[in-house]
Amino acid sequence: MPGLGILTIFVLVALLAPVLAPYDPHALSGQPLERPSAAHPLGTNDIGQDILSELIFGARISLIVALAASMGTVALATLIGAAAGYLGGWLDTALMRGVDVLLALPRLPLLILLAALLGAGLPQTIAIIALLFWPAAARTIRAQTQSLRRRGYIQMARQLGGGTGYVLRRHIVPALAPLLAFELVMAAGRAVALEAGLAFLGIGDAAAKSWGLMMRFALNLPGLLLGDRWLWWLLPPAACLTLLILTLTCIGIGLEERWQPRLKRRP
Questions:
Q1: Which of 29, 75, 141, 182 has the smallest number of CB atoms closer than 10 Å to its CB?
Q2: Contact 29, 178 (CB under 8 A)
């Protein structure tokens, strides 16, 4: 519940960014490297943009990536995992061998390579994250589907003439809902971290005011850590990024405990 409360605050900040931000994050609203003041509560960056406005609009980028990339990841994992677990046979073998190959690949270097080849852009980043990070979830969904297909009501539905699509849509996928919710939240936290990492490395969308990009520009300033500028330029986006990932992780842990009651701590 605390995680959901903090996530709600992030969502509201992202939705109300044009109202809450004192300036356009792309506008040169002050002198370069102004210290925090009434006009600029977090000061300005090296070209005179308001850091607080960048921070507020950065929540939009992180939440968009979290939502879109996690939905893409879970959709692919559900499609592959449920099909393999329900149909079995040669299809299951072929799909799982493909999953094994993808899991064996070093995904982070591959992610960086694809991002560099496909170009910087938010849609490309979302697509790459979704395409590379679904295999682990697919294996979990496959195992749960194999357990579900042996249950009595599933076998009865099949004997009464329910086709593969009908059984998957009406019985298997709804029964997987708690697991899918958990996978969605965990994929969202991973997507936020990956987008920030790509932006920090300079292969993200340079036009998107993300927290990772703010951290990269801050660390590009010579002697940043020798003074106190890091307190109002580097620390705020790092803290927001850490808090959002921690929030999503807490929600995921809570959902996992509800999905698997045996994980709950006993008094």
A1: 75
A2: no
